[in-house]
Predict the structure.
Amino acid sequence: MKNVLAVAVLAIGLVTSMAGAGDKDTYKLEQKITQLEQELRDLQAAFRQQGAEIAQKMMAVEQMRADWNGFQGSVDAISQQQQLLFDQLKKYIDEFDGRLRSVEKRSAEVTPSDTGETETVAARPDTAATTYQQGLNAVQERDYDTALASFRQYLRAAPQSGMAAQAQYWIGECLFAQKNFQDAAKEFQALVDRYPGSEKIGAALFKQGLAFAELGMKPQAAGAYRKVVAQAPNSKEARQATTRLRLLEPTAATAERGPR
């Protein structure tokens, strides 16, 4: 009987000891879970913060890109103005030289009325050139509606002039600046079709690619960039188009480089 009681007491003590140990382990496990949950919340907060910072950086990059495009457009406009003024000056010099030779040949027969007629002709403004200049001025002022009207009027008056391709290009640029990407792409294509020998081909195709990209038309954008590289391989637009192609076609670019 004493042995039975001793065994019972021993068993009760063992169970009590195990129960106490189990409570301690459970408490430690709960503490560990609580710690892990806190670490998970901290990680989630860190990821959200990183996401916000990345979004801000992307917005800053897009703003820089927009500012650069605006700056580039202003530089192009100034360059076009300089070229236009040079062409006008050369034209007036040639006209004056021709009239001077004519006057010298008829010097003995010149009358006051002839002189007056000559002065009137020499003073007559070149309407088409003035219209083109008005378009460039409007671009610099970012008055794109006025610029579009001026360049279109210029093309109607002088569709085959030396500045016609540039006027067509500026029509596309104005529409692009107004975020009318669909019509801008059409106008850039019109330049390619109507003036295939123009030095603005590369720029027009590159901006057409940008317009397609803005519309989410990635295959068409890639096609325009490839045309830039093919038709104007030594231009700055060709280098920019190559970079854009790598962004649009990372898999293809990796395949072309081959295994390392």
In short: Confidence is low (pLDDT under 50) at residues 103-125, 251-260.
